[in-house]
Amino acid sequence: MKQIRVAVIGAGPAGIYAADILTEQHDGASVDVFDRLPTPYGLVRYGVAPDHPRIKEIVKALHRVLDRDRIRFLGNVEYGVDLKLADLQAHYDAVIFSTGAMADRDLDIPGIDLPGSHGAADFVSWYAGHPDVPDSWPLEAREIAVIGAGNVALDVARMLAKPSDEQLGTEIADNVHRGLALNQATDIHIFARRGPAQIKFTPMELRELSHSPEVDVVVHPEGFEIDEASQHAISSNKGTRLMVDTLLKHLEAEPTGAARRIHIHLCQAPVAVLGNGQVQGLRTEKTALQGDGTVRGTGEYVDTPVQAVYRAVGYRSSQLVDLPFDHTAGVVPHDAGRVLDLDGEAMPSTYVTGWVKRGPVGLIGHTKSDAAETVASLLADLDLDLDQAPGTEPADPDRILIHLAERGVEVTTWEGWGRLDAHEVALGTAAGRQRIKVVPREEMLRISRG
Ligand SMILES: Cc1cc2nc3c(=O)[nH]c(=O)nc-3n(C[C@H](O)[C@H](O)[C@H](O)COP(=O)(O)OP(=O)(O)OC[C@H]3O[C@@H](n4cnc5c(N)ncnc54)[C@H](O)[C@@H]3O)c2cc1C
Ligand SMILES: NC(=O)c1ccc[n+]([C@@H]2O[C@H](COP(=O)([O-])OP(=O)(O)OC[C@H]3O[C@@H](n4cnc5c(N)ncnc54)[C@H](OP(=O)(O)O)[C@@H]3O)[C@@H](O)[C@H]2O)c1
After folding, report:
1. Distance in Å, CA 225 to ligand 1 centroid
2. Ligand 2 center to residue 154 CA distance, Å?
3. Given the DSSP bridges, would you call strands 260-265 and 268-275 parallel, antiparallel or unpaired?
4. What CATH number belongs to 4-102+318-412?
């Protein structure tokens, strides 16, 4: 069996599944999984909401993969800064990029840059304790608009509405708990630009919105439009039916008088963030369904007074050094995972998987099928290459470590992450919590060092 060495850039679920499938399918494969963070798991650690411990259980399976003999985790190594494509080509037989997405998509409306207008991804990074975002977050606003009707909008609205003490049992960092305790929000308004059958929430996440006794969910009747196409979607798709049913229940329910409310407004598209030097409102245009799931503006506007706006209109991947990038789709162009250069030709031994391949939609489980496709391409190409260049020796695995050390890069190893992981769990146990995340990068590195 030919020995091959593969680099995976990005230790989120997509990269870990790629390493998993590759080592399962090729007994001679060894994989180095790099991440710019000192920690593995990508958005499972820094995206999935802290009050979703059941989903975070997926970490156990991802841990088992990274724990394998033929897989190494090398954290705190940033592709494009600490390593370039040429370095990877010199040390590995193939490279798989799985760098995901971390930034907010732009929303080009007047006032979007006003103080008090935030990207959901930035807020998520803050409450998830990401080391590269500021330690504190402004939470003085009483009324808040959340633009977008996907699951990230739900996460953001729930995190803004739930009393901070309901988060205490989770893994949140201390600075996050302190910040949330000062939260003044009473009314969070989610604005969906389409109707109840077109929103992108998933049923379980929507149902969960009402789990806090301290929060009322209010669905507003204006814009609760169900046309023929919506009716068809409801009868043909169980998820849509469950969601519309849940929305209807909220629409018909009497508010309990809870101190905080999450409002859901349908068929209202954002037009402008209002304010003079600070967010003071959101202007939306009422929309009407056009019979095919899309909407048109009606020319009727609504101004909602709010002191903060969060846009949750999707994530965005970043361009990677030395790789082509499709700026419109926000992905690395590829054919079944093979990165395509500007002429549409496959770049040798260079692959992509996960959100940076497919775009920032889909659940953790979907990254497994992404990885399966990419690994199949890689292994198929390798067979070809083998015919052309039999007998090539794999690179010495220590060489890349020497290369990084010579550049002054402090690599977090799997054992190092184990130390940080155990430290966070111990902090949590002492305080009767699941875990307390360590946030400053320097502190993470110090603890990992042992
Ligand atoms: C807020 C939020 C909540 C979510 N909640 C859920 C949920 O509850 N359930 C669910 O199933 N799905 C959820 N998802 C979706 C899920 O997180 C994604 O499907 C999945 O994480 C995508 O995996 P990925 O590996 O492609 O990207 P990521 O998880 O983003 O991983 C990419 C990794 O690459 C690293 N990286 C980036 N650039 C570089 C570089 N230059 N050099 C080295 N490393 C780099 C990053 O640090 C990161 O660790 C959520 C998504 C978001 C945004
Ligand atoms: N708990 C979970 O399972 C969980 C949690 C978080 C995220 N996720 C997953 O992660 C992925 C990303 O989630 P996401 O919420 O970022 O993206 P998403 O599901 O694509 O939702 C984006 C929302 O933004 C709206 N939008 C986009 N552009 C807009 C504009 N210009 N004006 C107004 N609204 C606009 C979209 O409306 P249109 O539909 O009209 O375009 C949609 O409602 C999804 O697959 C999601 O399911 C899962």
Report:
1. 34
2. 9
3. unpaired
4. 3.40.50.720
Q: Look at ligand 2, atom 20, and give the residue with the nearest C-alpha.
A: 314
- CA atoms of 400 and 84, how far apart (whole Å): 12
Q: Where are the domains of the chain?
A: 4-102+318-412, 103-315
Q: Which of 152, 133, 19 is nearest to 74 (CA)?
A: 19
Say how far apart CA 32 and CA 362 lie, in whole Å.
25
pLDDT for position 390: 44
The rounded Å distance from CA 250 to ligand 2 centre is 21
Of the candidates 4, 25, 2, 8, which has an alpha carbon nearest to the alpha carbon of residue 72? 8
Distance between Cα 157 and ligand 1 center (Å): 20
Give the whole-angstrom CA distance, residue 225 versus residue 238: 19
Per-residue model confidence as pLDDT tens digits over 228-287: 999 999 999 999 999 999 999 999 999 899 999 999 999 999 999 999 999 999 999 999
pLDDT above 90 for 88: yes
Using DSSP, state whether 142 is helix, strand or coil.
coil
Fold of 103-315: FAD/NAD(P)-binding domain (3.50.50)
**In this structure, which residue's CA is closest to atom 4 in ligand 2?**
151
- Of the candidate ranges 80-84, 222-226, 381-385, the one whose mean pLDDT is the lowest: 381-385
Question: Is the C-beta atom of 355 inside 6 A of ligand 1?
Answer: yes
331 alpha carbon, closest ligand? 1
Number of Cβ atoms within 10 Å of the Cβ of 125: 22
Check whether 82 has a pLDDT greater than 50: yes
Q: Which of 200, 209, 271, 309 has most ligand 2 atoms within 8 Å of its beta carbon, as the pocket-test mutant?
A: 200
Query: Does the beta carbon of 312 sit less than 6 angstroms from any atom of ligand 1?
Result: no
Token pair listed for 308: 């903060």
**Confidence (pLDDT) at 352:** 98
State the DSSP string of 291-355. SSS-EEEEEEEEEEE-SEEEE-S-EEPPP-TTS--BTTTTB--EETTEEE-TTSPEEEEEEE-TH
Percentage of the chain with pLDDT > 70? 98
Ligand 1 centre to CA of 101 (Å) is: 6
| 323 within ligand 1 shell (Cβ under 6 A) | no
pLDDT tens digits for range 1-36:
789 999 999 999 999 999 999 999 999 999 999 999
| Model pTM score | 0.96
